[in-house]
Every structure is written in C-alpha cells, then in structure tokens.
Structure to design on (118 residues):
C-alpha cells in the first residue's frame, strides 16, 4: 500500500476513535493554499484542530515527533484562515491536538502545542 492510502486509513480509524470519545468531527482534510488540517472537530467547548500522524514502527521515530514547530506554525496559519472564512470570533476557544497512530495503538495528545502567532 502507498503512503496516501495508509494515511487515509489511519485518519478514518482516528476519526471513529475520536467520535467514540465525544468529538464531533466537522471537517476532514481541510485544505487551503497554506496547507492542510487532517481533522477539525468540537470537543468539550473547544474547536479542535487535529494533526494525525501514523508510523508502522518506531524505527524512524514516534509519530508525534514529526509535528515540528514548522508544522505547528503551518497548522496555526491554516486554522486562522478556517476561522476567518467561517467568521468565527477571536474569542472562540481553540485547541491543537495530535493523534499518534503506531500500528494499531492510538494516542490522543490534547493541547499538544500552543497557538503560534504569525
């Protein structure tokens, strides 16, 4: 299987897992010119932007380690655009979570990184 197919399968598995945990998924693979956010949902009063990372093994590091500061800034930029397009007030409570998938183990890291200003 190619990486895109494996990644899509992992995102599907993660979305189902999050929904069982009470997350309302409102967007999948939201894209704009700045980049992509894997999942956007609502959870416990927050608008949550999820980055999903999959690894078949730890030989190249843990999945969450791939969410570098550069990637975090890109996610924040896409999130800003999303909030602007949807006319969400700046006071909207937001959170940036990472969901790590290693083989069949799912680890949800809430508040994985802070909002990075432009």
């Amino acid at each position: 299987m190619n990486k895109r197919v494996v990644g899509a399968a992992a995102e599907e598995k993660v979305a189902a897992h999050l929904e069982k945990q009470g997350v309302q998924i409102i967007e999948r693979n939201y894209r704009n010119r700045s980049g992509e956010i894997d999942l956007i949902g609502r959870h416990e009063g927050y608008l949550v932007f999820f980055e999903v990372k999959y690894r078949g093994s730890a030989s190249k590091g843990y999945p969450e380690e791939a969410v570098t500061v550069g990637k975090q800034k890109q996610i924040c930029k896409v999130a800003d655009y999303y909030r602007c397009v949807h006319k969400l007030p700046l006071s909207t409570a937001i959170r940036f979570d990472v969901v790590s998938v290693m083989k069949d183990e799912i680890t949800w890291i809430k508040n994985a990184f802070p909002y990075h200003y432009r």
